[in-house]
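User: Second chain of the day. Same drill as before.
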Amino acid sequence: MFDELTTLCLAGRRPALPQDWWQAFSLAPATLAPLLALLAWLLLRRRRPWPLAGWGLLVLALVSPLCRLAATLAWAHMAQLMLLLAGMALLAMASPRRAHMPRPGPAALAHGVLLWLWHVPGIYTAALQHATLHVLLLALLLGSAWWFWRAVLLAPPPLRGAALAALLATMAHTGLLGALLTFASQPLYPLQAAGARAWGVEPLQDQQLAGLLMWVLGALGYLLAATALALRWFAPATPARRTPATLPR
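Assistant: Same format as last time:
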């Protein structure tokens, strides 16, 4: 079912090389059909531009040559992951508000488990080799990201403290994962060693750069989101401007 996806986004073919990586666009129906359906849904809703920007990030991560690079280099995989998570955050803003919003705690837990699961060496390697597993894990990760960001960004007043706690906890454990990748004494993902060397980089250096992207830039993104929400939710309300009283004659 997903054979065309294996052409670019898995590690079964030659690495994306410096001289031609920019030509490797992923135009498989398995990738394009869900994205086009999502775009149609967003256009019908006619909401703010943020969800459309999120859709654009998904296209950049899954259709552009970054998809092939992510199968070749660990740091490109991490860049793709960060674009996907940022895209889901923007898309979550388009989700309808309901009386019973999801709780941030369970959403953050599920999302965190899937993030760590993706980076278990054996699972990571299998996901780059088997198209069905790759699509399944990617769908689960994106679904958990949408659940997490919806629970956090649209949290009602009683859950806003829990939402900020969930954001900070996610920042902490993803920072830990990034640090583990950065300070590992040996490459954890040997399947991408040939791709790294094709770019003139040692596999361990490639992995360290991936870890730094998650540790530094990822943590910065969560911190900025938490700060923006805290300022929006808990800043003192600006008093309404009073109309000057009419002076007596």
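The radius of gyration is 21 Å.

User: Great, on to the next one.
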